[in-house]
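User: Um, what's this?
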Amino acid sequence: MGRYSYFIKAAVIFVILSAFTYFIHFLIFRDLHHIFIYMVGDLAFLPLEVFLVVIVIERILTRREKQSMLQKLNMVVGAFFSEVGNCLLGDLLGHFDNRAEISSNLNVTQDWTPGDFRRAAAYAHNLQIDLDCRKIDLEGLKAFLSRKRMFVLGLLQNPNLMEHDRFTGLLWALTHLDEELEARPSLKDLPEKDLEHLADDIKRMYDHLSSEWLDYVKHLRSNYPFLYSLVLRTHPFQEHPSAIFV
């Protein structure tokens, strides 16, 4: 209520100042006709002025602010993949029964076009993973996520992530998997139903992970060619990933 009161008071003050200025003009020049000519001219230009200031300039400033925020957000996403995501992409992929199919669809190369990225994103959005949890080192996965827990929780506290629902969804899926593994005193000799539950959690997390990885790589392709070059050489969906140029 106080905020609206402030605007009302400001509007009244400016109207009074405007009227007072016109009154001074009349006292000096005694030409009411001249005053009304310019008043109508000013009123005629007012809609265009409002359009330029409120709509055009505001949109330009909003777009610049959004671009700046997305740049900062992509720095956060890059830190996540450097610290956590890239390891999970490669380590888990090796245990999927259909890893060859997944790799063939997500193997980003130098000659990929925007259309290739769109097709890969559609594939990753509903990623079908054939997984038997008994083939995964669950204790090793638990230890890895435990080491990275504070890093992931720190990312969740970043206010910029409120503008990136999908990446936040990835972090929640990863945190949930960490909690599921941590809640079990031992990950050996688990019943079949429990293994299926953990498999579903891993699939959900990897689905989010692969989709966000594609978005991040696409961003690097457009904005940071030198980082994109490193990703092309080291990502796990190719046959022989290596940072070394050959």
